[in-house]
């Protein structure tokens, strides 16, 4: 499943072709949405945001289209007259005078108003998005130390979307590696320096994955592998999906564990 950085990049791509362009055609597959399609014709998209793994298309009439890709959903952008060749099922179509944005295979789609968006059953449970909302390291430190989160193991806590939205499985492993922390540690047990490092790594890993299309490995570690012709899967991450391979920093073997029912990768030497 795509994580926050991937959804933010989708939002950026949609924004480039939709924002401030009148919609010539709006189509929804679901009957509950189809009756509202005429209200969006000739409307303009004001913004395209991401909130964790959800995507929000905001229109100038106050309506907001919510979608969550889940496992199979995908947005495709093409020139107006070109229909992508795919076996996926079309769910949403937004067409301007030049481009079309189409959502395929997703099932979690709904239309809201800005005034009622806070009542959304999924969004109302989310913490802030590290890419969309203004989150500082100091704010993150305070949140991690709050009574709600401080006594929970980091291995499970980082996947809790009510802490912050958008961190998924690969980011969890990478954040803990760069912070030098084992997944069994708790915010309550961390020193001030460790807590500050964790908060900084949460932001930097997420922002770096956004800038570099999901790559979290350091440039100096991945450059020799790229030059040697290795595929992206080999050099993309520092520890995630690298079980049995050497740590780029200390040369120890990367280990794989199952925590919170999902795989986690770590360096037993760097993470003490």
Task: Identify the overall geometry.
Answer: globular
- SSE sequence, one letter per element: HEHHEEEEEEEHHHHHHEE
The radius of gyration is 21 Å
SS field, number of helical segments: 9
What does this entry show, briefly?
The protein is an alpha+beta fold.
Task: Provide structural commentary.
Its EC number is 4.2.99.18. It holds the Pfam family H2TH. It is an enzyme of class 4 (lyase). InterPro entries: FPG_cat (IPR012319), FPG_N (IPR035937), H2TH_FPG (IPR015886), Ribosomal_uS13-like_H2TH (IPR010979), Znf_DNA_glyclase/AP_lyase (IPR000214). Keywords: DNA damage, DNA repair, DNA-binding, Endonuclease, Glycosidase, Hydrolase, Lyase, Metal-binding, Multifunctional enzyme, Nuclease, Zinc, Zinc-finger. The chain has 272 residues and is of the alpha+beta class. The protein folds into two domains: 4-125, MutM-like, N-terminal (N-terminal domain of MutM-like DNA repair proteins, Alpha-Beta Barrel); 137-266, Helicase, Ruva Protein, domain 3 (Orthogonal Bundle). Helices cover 29% and strands 21% of the residues. The chain contains nine helices and ten strands. The chain has helices at 4-18, 31-34, 37-40, 137-144, 154-157, 169-179, 192-211, 219-227, 232-235; strands spanning 25-28, 45-51, 54-59, 63-68, 74-79, 90-95, 99-104, 108-113, 255-259, 262-266. The strands form three sheets. A four-stranded antiparallel β-sheet has the order 1-6-7-5. A hairpin with a 2-residue loop joins β9 (255-259) and β10 (262-266). α1 (4-18) crosses α7 (192-211) and α4 (137-144) packs across α7 (192-211). The protein is globular and about 60 Å long. The two termini are 29 Å apart. The mean pLDDT is 96.
